[in-house]
Amino acid sequence: MQYQFILLFLFFGLTSTFAQQNKKSVLNDALKSETIDPLRPAKAAFYSAIFPGLGQIYNKKYWKLPLVYGAIGASAYFYIDSQKNYNIYRDEYKNRLAGNTGNSEYLANLSESQLVSAQKQFQRNRDLSALFIVGFYVLNIIDANIDAALSQFNVSENLAFKPTMNFRNENLKSDFGFALNYSF
Fold this sequence. Notes:
This protein is mostly helical. 68% of the residues lie in helices and 10% in strands. It has six helices and two strands. Strands 1-2 form a two-stranded antiparallel sheet.
């Protein structure tokens, strides 16, 4: 049983050693051409803060533009629509308090309490839409910042998985295990 572990260890140890030697020559050429700009995430966030979507353009993630403009645009549409309906019901309620009649037959059939509850509903929807506009704007900035930071993340193939033999001095036994080593 012990001999099988030793043979397995030698097999995996030698294959991972030979595999790493070939990859190092390829990676050295690729790593020399990359330069890291520490201000890239800040620039992307700044551009997105100035104009939504500009940070995504700076990061060359053009496919995110429809998502940014769709989210902010839909929220803005619902904000404007809720504000318009709120004004309609508020004006009708004010006209009734002043003793005037409205032009709409639909609003004429509603009671004053229904007009007040409709106003509250549209006011709530308007406020939620404003909150969504701000939320999507901030999310746009955060996305540009994180995307710029992750685009410079070094993903090299120096990460190796190889078996190791650990010798413990306490009990003079050897343990067989796997180690995940990162060399840079």
